[in-house]
Amino acid sequence: MSAKRVCPRCEQDWAQPYRFKADGTCFLLCAECDSLWWPHETVGVTQAHFLDDVVAARLGVEGDPWGDRVWADVIEPAPVLQR
Ligand SMILES: [Zn+2]
Q1: What angle do CA 33, 38, 43 make, to 5 degrees?
Q2: How far is the CA of 28 from the centre of ligand 1 (A)?
Q3: C-alpha angle with apex 63: 45 to 11, nearest 5 degrees?
Q4: What's the gap in Å between 69 CA and the centre of ligand 1?
Q5: pLDDT of residue 4
Q6: pLDDT digit string, tens, across residues 7-47
Q7: In whole angstroms, what is the distance from residue 78 CA to residue 74 CA?
Q8: Do residues 71 and 27 make contact, with C-beta atoms less than 8 angstroms apart?
């Protein structure tokens, strides 16, 4: 496990391991600005995805996916980042 990485976008929080509860897919997430990185990606500004976009795509919804759900319904912190 590598050292914790400060989020390069907001520099206010760490890029921490999370996973989708549905299938265990892991990713790195900054809970401050909702930036997301897949395990094989470099944690950088230009590589950042947005959690809302990724969740909306996975759930097959348009726009804001959080109308009737919260983070804990979809994702949870992961103990380690599994590739
Ligand atoms: Zn951030």
Answers
A1: 60
A2: 11
A3: 25
A4: 22
A5: 82
A6: 999 999 999 999 999 999 999 999 999 999 999 999 999 99
A7: 13
A8: no
